[in-house]
Amino acid sequence: MSITATELKKNLGYYLALASTETISITKNGRVVAPLSNPKEIKEKTVGSLRGILPNDSNVTMDTFRMERLEKQLSN
Questions:
Q1: Hey, is 71 helix, strand or coil?
Q2: Which end of the chain is less packed: N or C, by CB atoms within 10 Å?
Q3: Could you tell me which of 9, 6, 5 has the C-alpha nearest to residue 27?
Q4: Mapping DSSP to helix (H, G, I), strand (E, B) and coil, where does residue 38 land?
Q5: CB-side neighbour CA atoms (13 Å) of 12
Q6: DSSP code, position 51
Q7: Residue 60 and residue 7: Cα distance in Å, rounded?
Q8: DSSP string computed for 17-35
Q9: pLDDT tens, position by position, 23-43
Q10: Which whole-number Å values give the CA distances from 27 to 1, 5, 30, 46, in the listed order?
Q11: Distance, CA of 73 to CA of 37 (rounded, Å)
Q12: Rounded to an integer, what distance in angstroms lies between the CA atom of residue 62 and that of residue 70?
């Protein structure tokens, strides 16, 4: 679904509830400026994108992924 930024401002509560079931593209001047989606869906896509790259015996979880990312940020 695609909506304008003005429409989002007018009906924020409605679109926040709707974002739990589908991704909403927010447009401004006819161009997509941001997605509005369920955080669980984003996590699943992130972990899913790692499948096939990591060995099958790897015990990578979202928590492991998060900790490695934080450690990398803190070391910089």
A1: helix
A2: C
A3: 5
A4: coil
A5: 1
A6: B
A7: 40
A8: HHTTTS-EEEEETTEEEEE
A9: 899 999 999 999 998 877 777
A10: 11, 6, 6, 24
A11: 25
A12: 12
Which residue in this structure is represented by tokens 């990578």? 60
- Six-digit token string for 26: 């927010």
Structure token digits, residue 71: 């450690």
Residue 53 pLDDT: 65
Q: Residue 47 has which token pair? A: 């972990």
Question: Quick count: other Cβ atoms within 10 Å of Cβ 5?
Answer: 13
Give, for 3, the enclosing helix (H) or strand (E): strand 2-4
This prediction has a pTM of 0.54
Q: How far apart are CA 4 and CA 28, in angstroms?
A: 6
The number of helix segments (H) and strand segments (E) in the chain equals 4, 3
